[in-house]
Amino acid sequence: MRQRQMKLNGGNRMTIWEQVELVNSKQSLADFVLALRGDLIAKGTEWENTTLDRYLEAVEALIRSRNGEYSPSGKVPASVLSWREIAETLFYAHTYE
User: In the 8-state DSSP scheme, what is residue 13?
Assistant: First the structure.
């Protein structure tokens, strides 16, 4: 299993949030989901929503709370989520109440 932080060029490590910011494709979203799972395993006590039921409830709430005509970037209609916006939703759901 891959670790919570991925290696970057030069041996630096990427945090889970930094990985969210790089999601721009199906592959990078899949890599992020794998890292998110690793974060739950390693730091689950820091998560608000540690059961699948609570986590999915938070994902639903975050998706339903999306407002506006465009995404936060202002480039994509809100009805069309980008790979990164999906990653952001999955990330925020671990602490969303």
Answer: E
Provide the residue type at 51 as one letter.
T
46 DSSP assignment: G
Closest CA to 89 of 34, 32, 7: 32
The domains of the chain are located at: 6-92
pLDDT category, 77, cuts 50, 70, 90?
low
Average pLDDT of the chain, as a whole number: 77
Q: What is the pTM of this model?
A: 0.67
Q: Both tokens of residue 51?
A: 């059961």
The phi and psi torsions of 94 (rounded to 5 degrees) equal -70, -15
